[in-house]
């Protein structure tokens, strides 16, 4: 098992992220140019998990915060060869920690209704169903929209 370190994404990761996207989400992946622009705008909320010394990209996550109490988890993908090793959970925990630390508010996401591993991961992290959307990503691309409300902070 390869544990991988969670770290901020860097520009040099974009080609590997685009390749991972294409494998993870055939027909619905972000093309390189979109990832490039998302990195420029939201790169401070883009994390990867990679092997020792930065070798091998196992997964990535991207969060977009609007500064108005709402943020969106735009992507979470782990390479098939590295699934079931905790990479997705580490990435999700890390990006949710960023959202909480930076007070980005509730975190929203959409997920395919039949993506049971992702649904289990999100539910374990405190996400709840907000709505079911037909054709959310286009014809035949139904999605569940989930939300994780802001965790309560313990007063001093």
Automatic annotation (TrEMBL):
It is an enzyme of class 2 (transferase). CDD domains: NAT_SF. InterPro entries: Acyl_CoA_acyltransferase, Bact_Acetyltransf, GNAT_dom. GO terms for molecular function: acyltransferase activity, transferring groups other than amino-acyl groups. Its EC number is 2.3.1.128. Keywords: Acyltransferase, Transferase. It comes from the Bacteria. Residues 4-151 form the N-acetyltransferase domain. It holds the Pfam family Acetyltransf_1. This is Alanine acetyltransferase. The lineage of its organism: Bacteria, Bacillati, Actinomycetota, Actinomycetes, Kitasatosporales.
